[in-house]
Design goal:
91 residues, mainly alpha, 67% helix, single chain, 5 helices, globular
Length: 91
């Protein structure tokens, strides 16, 4: 990340969707990154580490862990629960 750039924050819905898609389609980390990040060329190692981290949290704490991570890291307690339920039902 270049100096002065803000760190990209992903919604809990996106994180859960990525992990559930990876598991349901039996994708590897690299395949998952290529599918969900169009601009991944050259940045794959960073995205792969991110997906691995999300997967660990998901496996240890479930979807709630990924939602809790957003609240803890940003201080914001607003999560679109209706949209999250919609995402989980689609997968």
């Amino acid at each position: 990340m270049k100096k002065g750039q803000k760190k990209k924050k992903y919604s809990p819905e996106f994180k859960i969707g990525v992990i559930l898609d990876m598991h349901s389609h039996r994708l590897g980390y690299r395949e998952t990154v290529r599918k969900h990040w169009e601009d991944s060329k050259g940045k794959e190692p960073n995205h792969i580490k991110q997906v691995q981290r999300w997967e660990r949290i998901y496996l240890e704490e479930g979807a709630e862990g990924l939602m809790k991570e957003l609240v803890m890291s940003t201080g914001y307690g607003k999560v679109d629960h209706q949209n999250l339920i919609k995402v989980l039902k689609e997968i």
